[in-house]
Structures are given as structure tokens and as C-alpha cells.
Amino acid sequence: MTSHFFFLSxxxxxxxxxxxxxxxxxxxxxxxxxxxxxxxxxxxxxxxxFLTGDALASLExxxxxxxxxVILSLSAVRIICDRQELDLRGIxxxxxxxxxxxxxxxxxxxxxxxxPSFWNDVVMLVRQQNRPPLPSDSIGWFQxxxxxxxxxxxxxxxxxxxxxxxxFSVELYAYLDGIHMGxxxxxxxxxxxxxxxxxxxxxxxxxxxxxxxILACNHCATARGYSTWDDGKGVIISxxxxxxxxxxxxxxxxxxxxxxxxxxxxxxxxxxFPWKGSAPSYDRSEQNSNSPPITILITxxxxxxxxxxxxxxxxxxxxxxxxxxxxxxxxxGIYALKGDPKACPDSIGFNIQDYINxxxxxxxxxxxxxxxxxxxxxxxxxxxxxxxxxxGYPGLAKILFYLPGNVLxxxxxxxxx
Length: 417
Fold this sequence. Notes:
By secondary structure, this protein is an alpha/beta fold. The protein has three domains: 1-107, 3-Layer(aba) Sandwich (Hypothetical Protein Ychn, Chain: A), CATH 3.40.1260; 123-272, Hypothetical Protein Ychn, Chain: A, CATH 3.40.1260.10; 273-417, 3-Layer(aba) Sandwich (Hypothetical Protein Ychn, Chain: A), CATH 3.40.1260. It is 32% helix and 22% strand. It contains 13 helices and 19 strands. The chain has helices at 14-31, 62-72, 83-89, 94-99, 118-129, 152-165, 194-207, 218-223, 250-257, 307-320, 352-359, 371-377, 393-401; strands spanning 4-8, 47-51, 77-81, 104-105, 138-143, 169-174, 212-217, 228-230, 236-238, 245-248, 262-265, 267-272, 284-289, 294-298, 325-329, 365-370, 388-391, 405-407, 411-416. Strand 2 (47-51), helix 2 (62-72) and strand 3 form a beta-alpha-beta unit. The two termini are 29 Å apart. The relative contact order is 0.12.
């Protein structure tokens, strides 16, 4: 059975749950209608949510709890909770669990150390996604937030550590502020040392005959003051980073995204295509592609953070290397598309709409905007952004679940910026 899973750690708003809900309704009515005829929970749920961090609060919040109830009414959905994080935050999910006892799992399975481990649960589902399992299987984590200020860096380390225990080779991709995970000389008092944890991960992988590859974006590193020099052969050296941290051109990172292994992030997903060949394709790759498509959701407003610009830059890099890449502006991300922004003549800042128009020339890069997000905020898209196509909830669902033309793989990656 086709299986999709989503990993969420940031706060989950009612708006975000609403577009999940509408996409699922489309999926079950248009693609998998037979599931609606049976009320028993399927043995292998079609959709699995892994919730940790602040995302867990949505199970207790009355506003979002109501939407979760609708999503869970579709029997082929389950939620796996991080028990340790539930206890840390004092979150009770009993009310929702009583209504859906077989679909909400709040007790994690045992790791190789015979201890409950949410991260082991995540890795086990990833292993099920790899068919057939290969001796060289890898798992990746894409990090865009800094450590210590954000808990997601710790999540990434725990995820990769569990993957290594399960005999996966592991990969970390540090982008935007995620490159601070590899800064030398970290010495926190109140939390786990992320830099040392990465060094330990690298050493343990070598002892087990596995690989641990840690790649950081050179552009992001340079912008943040990581003094580097290039040996002229593509190797960039920094005295600011720990030894396993390899600062490279962004294309070196994108090279890894051309492979088919599962890659997660602080908010991400892996979506399988339920059919091949005969499926109606919503869009298509320029040429036949064996790389999993990437759908990037831009959910944060531009200018105040680097999220929107960084997401587009990463999308352009992926598309340039032949990966079918879809960018969808939704939630507060639609503010990047409104009005007619004018940059100050004396400013070195960028106009993100100009950047979008330039980026739109790549045939492997497709740009969309979710119209309900505009309607919710009472704003409209700049009519000159003709490369950005308006879509509703059915269009979003088609991008998520329909196999694109010329794509020869069985899943796509979802990254939420």
C-alpha cells in the first residue's frame, strides 16, 4: 500500500492543518476512494504524522484539535508522538486519543539499547520505505536553523544517531543558519554539545564501516564569517569549523539530493506516488529524471528572515541540476508575491519578486501560489508575476500526490521553509 509520512516539529497552526485536511480529502476521494468504505484502521496507514517539539501542542489546542479530529476520521491516518517531548511540555492528548485510540501512538518503541525511542520509530518507517533495502542505504537531514536557539539541530542529531544504530550511513546538509552546527569550540553548559555530537557521529560511523557525510553551503558559511580558503581543486577549508564539516559549493549538496534516499528536516515529508505511467500528471520534468522531485513550501514572510530567499535559492540550485522542483507560496509566504516592492537605490538588499522572475526561466522550476492564503489575508498577487500560477486546494493535492511527467521514481520530497 502507498504510504506517505510527514515530520513536524514547529508550531502547527489551524491554517496549516486546513491545507493538510483539504489535500487528504482530495486524495481519498480522487485517488483512493475504496478506503472510505471501511471504517477500521488499516494495518498499514496511508498517512503517518511524526510529531515532536512545538507541533505536539496542536493535539491539545482546541482550535487545531478539532481539525485533527477531521483528519483522523479518515481511518488511514495515524499520529506517532514523541513521548519524551510530551512529558517535557506537560501536554495531554487523552481527549483526542480517547476518540481515536488506534490512530494516536504516544508510547514509542524500543531502540537497540532497550529504551523507548521516538527517533527509532521514525527510522523504522524510513527503512520500510526503502524497497528493497540496500547495504549502502543512507538517511539525510537538512538543517536550516541554528543550534541552541532552536531545538531542531538536536532533533537532527538524534535522528541521525538512531539511523546509524540501524546500520544506515548518514548525511547532514547544513544550509542558512544550519551551518552553525559545525562551528568549532562549542561549549554549552545547559544543553548537549551539538558540535561534539557530530564529531562522535562521524567517528562512530567510521568504526562501523559506514559513512557520515556532513556538507555545509559555502555561500551561507561565507556570509556568516566562516573564514575559508579554496585549494583550487574544489576543497574549501575553514579554521572555524569542526573537522567532519565539509564546506562546499551548494551544488555539492544538491548532488546528494539527486539520489533517492529519504531526507528529512525540521518540517518535511516523503510522499509516494501511488501509480506510474497512467497517472494524470499536473506538471512535468524537462527531461526524463531519476531524481525524486522536490516540493518546497514557502510559509514565512520575506525580508524579515532569510527563509523565503534561501528557499528560492535552493530551489534554483536543484532545478539547475535537473531535479524537478516545485515551489509553493502559502501561509505568510504569499506576502512575497503581493504589491510592487521597490528597493531603496542605496540599499544592497534584494527585491524578491525580481529574483522570482529571473529564477522562473528554468524549465525544471515551477512556481505556484495557494489562493486560500491570499483570501485569508485579504491581499492579492502582483499581476506582473505571471510565472507564479494560482492554485487552490485541488491543485495543491495534485502537486503532492500525482506523478509528474518524465519522472521515473516512486516518491518525492517535501521541505517546509
